[in-house]
Amino acid sequence: MKRILLILWMVFSGWASFAQKQMPPEGGTPKDFMLPEKKEVTLKNGLRSSLVQYGALPKVNVSLLIKTGNVHEAANEVWLADLVVDMMKQGTTTMDFETISKKIAGMGGNINISAGMDQVTISGSVLSEFAPDLIKVISDIAINPAFPEKDIDRLKADMKRRLSVQKSVPQSVAREKFFDAIYKDHPYGRIYPTEAMVESYNLAMVKEFYEKNFGAKRSVIYVVGKFDETAVAKSISESFDKWKEGPEIIYPPAVAKQSNDISIIDRPNAPQSTIIIGLPTLDPSKPDYQALLITNSLLGGSFGSRITSNIREDKGYTYSPYSSVQVRKNTAVWFESADVTSEHTGASLQEISKEIKKLATEPPSKKELEGIQRYEAGVFVLQNSTPGGIIDQLNFLDQNGLSDDYLSNKVRNIYAVTPEKVSQLTKDYFDYEKMTLVVVGDKKLLDKQIKAHTDTKKIK
Amino acid sequence: MSVILAVLIAACSGKKGEEKSSSAFTVPVEYYKLKNGLKVALSQDKTAPTVAVAVYYNIGFRIEPKDRTGFAHLFEHMMFQGSENLGKMEFIKLVQQNGGIMNGSTRFDFTNYFEVMPAHKFETALWAEGDRMKGLAINQDNLTNQQGVVKNEVKVNVLNQPYGGFPWLDMPQYANENWYNAHNFYGDLADLDSAKLADVNSFFKTYYAPNNAALAIVGDFEVEDARKWIEQYFGNIPSQTLPPKPDISEPRQEKEKRFTKEDKLATKPAIAIAYKMPERNSAEYYAMGLIDQIMLQGQDSKLNLLLVQKKGYTDNVSGGINYLGNMYNYQGPMIWMVDLIYDASVPADSIIAQFDRSVAGLDTISQADIDLAVVKIRSSLYDNMGQFFGIGRADLLACFALFDDDPSRINSLEGEFKKITPEVIQKTVKEYLRSTNRTILISEPKSIAQ
After folding, report:
1. pLDDT at A28
2. Cβ separation A312–B341 shorter than 8 A
3. Which domains does chain B have, with CATH numbers?
4. Which of A160, A284, A386, A413 allows an S-S link to B13, with CB 3.0 to 4.6 Å?
5. CB B66 within 8 A of CB B178
């Protein structure tokens, strides 16, 4: 019996290999996708709010985004903004850390406070009925921080430990060098402080940073999920209307610099090289930004992209290559990152450069481009299908001074990109010869490989 | 341990279901089996025009072949290399070019494959999953290529990282006695290299059968369509005789174990403390879920207040049940673990002493403490259900189908936690948080950059 089955199976599979392959079913017609509606209000002091009812799970996300962060640090103040928010987390003039923590836990949630490059975020996610209470706690943390002196030494020690750990991670080391090269003397180029810098921070500096940079005019609160709208609106106005207006929104202008610097940072005996290669690119205010994103997705930004197909799925040099566009205020950078087997570092760079040069000289087929366009249109729907995702989208519009049209026209703009446009943009904005390259890896294995790479660069 | 580096960040997603007052939510679940044994769980949700399709095979890294560590995960990669009707890269392109995302992952007791598609491409995804459940069509080049990729995955996540496998990959190897629970799940590089095409084929034949799998669908679809297409694309895949399950049980631990491991890439020491869990779905198991909330989860947790806020030993205590998932998606011996990074100036014994103080405090746990823990659990369950565009919910449904033959358990979990009394907590602490039931692993920095 077994033998018969086996023979039948072989006959079947033999036959199958000659037969025409089955085509996948096309599927139906696309369903309408509508961006969820939002309600916006501005308080007298300038604080803005944006409320979106979304979904059915009985939870709500609240995010207060304040337009300050590492971007407002001086050269000798790196991570001071992080220390400010760590101190804010310790409590308010009426509630200490433990009181806040127990209160939030009773709402089935958490509160996160973090300093990013351009924004400070105070956010939480709780069971729906507690939305107004969460807003009160968030406002109290933003408006009435206690800045308890007893906590600062502990938080500085934590910060030094975190710094030491992060600097032992090869990807962090590469990022620090890369952004230093791109943004030189701007805060965007300063990723890590020195230990001495952290040591120099004190309570007065924390308070001064807070006074100079926090206030209603710089803040937007987003509430997305399931919640009682009237109660939430009331809680926002009651909790925030006494906040000082504070400073205007000011971002020190940054210019991303192009430089074809090559930096090799030694990591003795590393089994892989951590590569970052890239250059300044178009920011979201530019008309070709959407076409640039499509170009990125086709080149290295999606799993089916050319660079990933090549160095991962064909050569097996790496597991996690990806390219992306990092947006900061009025500036942006494109880069490809990959951790590749040490002995294939030079070969990986060759393949990346080949793919870029090929796309710059030969437009992609209509079919390949259409595949990417459909992928990006699908991802756009997903990006707007979660409360957290919706907050990200709305904040992106706000940070980049874009109108709602940016989102409502997005799918149309994705499909408007032509193969010629992709090739032209690659030529104009992905010039391999002008890219900054950082490699963190085993120097004794790298020097020869990188030299071969630079020689080909010179020859062109 | 997944085929693709996750690019989209999972966020809490809102989903539509039955409307009820104040914070109650029931997940719609329809459950049935095909004639060939494939378990199917459907959960409609029309919040967004997308559908999550998840296929779970009842084979995890725990029971991979003994001379082939890391094979279950390597095999997961092979499932993307080609089937009868979809050649190399074609599966991936089919999903992406239809506007979807996908991934696969290998865990203790299952390997999963999933897509999130625009709703109108639901049938396309079912066809593609059915196609690769029928059989693979791969060659030596594909295998060699993915051996390269997987070795690079191990390098980027473990070998070239400080705290690379600490403690998620390391601790099971120190805490457990039975090989099935105690081997290197990512795989020794030499074992990964020695995998043959014949191993791939026999692994597929042994474990990738419809009667060893569950299919979970969550999202914007019609039940009638789903039933029709699932029958059409999976119904004629023959079932297989499954091998007997090996004995994966762990003996009761009677002695505390302590180990130290060197980390050449780290600059700071780290410590992990792990306890063997009670049997899944027992009263003590649910009690451990609550203890996890009380001790470890959220900023109000005992360990956060003591070790971070009061003592300043670390800025973060992390941990939980099942580092590669959650307390629901496994079936077998498991550990509850806590880990943190600290300064070399603090002796590990001081941390352990404070930790023990926290455990001792569980003796006076009140009903009010339990009630608070239940609120936290309920909220985190909703987060699970909303995670990753429906995949979080599909994960629970598929695991409860595979392991318990009952995906509707998703709606009764909260009730199980509510049954736990302070007495059950104390009983659980006494038997499971015994110091003789734990393993302590310290990672010592040996970095030259120190």
Report:
1. 82
2. no
3. 30-234 (3.30.830.10), 257-445 (3.30.830.10)
4. A386
5. no
